[in-house]
Design brief:
Layout (H helix, E strand, L loop, with lengths): L7 E5 L7 H16 L4 E5 L5 H8 L4 E5 L16 H6 L4 E4 L2 H6 L4 H14 L2 E6 L3 H5 L3 H19 L4 E4 L13 H18 L1 H6 L1 E4 L5 H8 L6 E4 L6 H15 L2
Parallel strand pairs: 1-2, 1-8, 2-3, 3-4, 4-5, 5-6, 6-7
Length: 257
């Protein structure tokens, strides 16, 4: 973790806590943010709880993210949500290109870039996810695959000029209990920063690159201690305030060193 980049710990609730329990969990995250002032806390509730969680967190340091967005701002797209609607619901962030979206809903690099452009126009700060499957990793294709994913969005990210982030999430570690070793994570994070530096060194130095993939209290410290790991995109552990708080405290402790 580089002290020049404030660590970002983001909780992706996926399809959980879409009602009153989400508001309660959001309130617990406000307490976490107060206890960890050196860490930026963002939570991503389901659509049904966005506005209520945003109201619960209003005036606090907790940011609200959506888990997805449609590329168009309006139209006959039943069941979809536009970037402007997310802003109206209280969002300041949006997760794009999550591995589950890429795998289950066939989102391509081009689709992720289109959604990123929509987020940019609405001034939603993006957390763009990249990562390789187990098959790609075993074939030695990790860096090639991730390079293509990064190249698809890097020019747009450069235009934001704000607190954008990239999350490296090895697909084989999502929800499996497996996770990349700190050495594996640092290798990919350093490669991503190197590719960005070839575009703009200042941009690369500012970019926060998060690790996502079965991040838990017992492995958070070792992952976050890597020089190019600037936080975490947390899935299952974000559904429990105690676990999520422990991850945030690990980041807080590292900032104090």
């Amino acid at each position: 973790m580089n002290p020049a980049r404030k660590p970002l710990i983001a909780g992706n609730w996926k399809m959980f806590h879409g009602g009153p329990s989400g508001v309660t969990l959001a309130g617990e995250n406000v307490k976490i943010a107060v206890a960890c002032p050196g860490v930026e806390i963002v939570i991503a509730p389901p659509y049904t709880a966005l506005a209520a969680c945003a109201a619960e967190c209003h005036g606090t340091a907790v940011g609200i993210a959506a888990q997805n967005v449609h590329a168009k701002d309006k139209g006959a797209y039943t069941g979809e949500i536009s970037a402007s609607m997310l802003v109206e619901s209280g969002c300041t962030w949006v997760i794009l290109g999550h591995s589950e979206r890429r795998a289950q809903f066939r989102e391509s690099d081009e689709m992720v870039a289109e959604k990123l452009e929509a987020a940019m126009h609405a001034r939603l700060w993006p957390i763009v996810c990249v990562g390789e499957t187990l098959e790609q990793r075993e074939a030695g294709e990790t860096l090639r695959v991730i390079r293509l994913q990064v190249d698809a969005v890097a020019p747009l990210l450069l235009q934001f000029g704000g607190p954008v982030a990239i999350a490296y999430e090895p697909v084989w570690a999502i929800g499996t209990g497996k996770n990349a070793s700190p050495r594996d994570a640092e290798e990919v994070h350093a490669a991503i920063r190197g590719w960005l530096a070839a575009i703009d060194s200042g941009f690369a130095a500012r970019m926060r690159i998060l690790y996502g993939g079965s991040v838990k209290p017992d492995n958070a410290m070792s992952l976050l201690a890597c020089p190019n790991v600037d936080g975490a995109l947390v899935g299952g552990a974000s559904l429990d305030a105690a676990s999520f708080g422990a991850i945030a405290r690990a980041a807080q402790d590292l900032t104090a060193r």
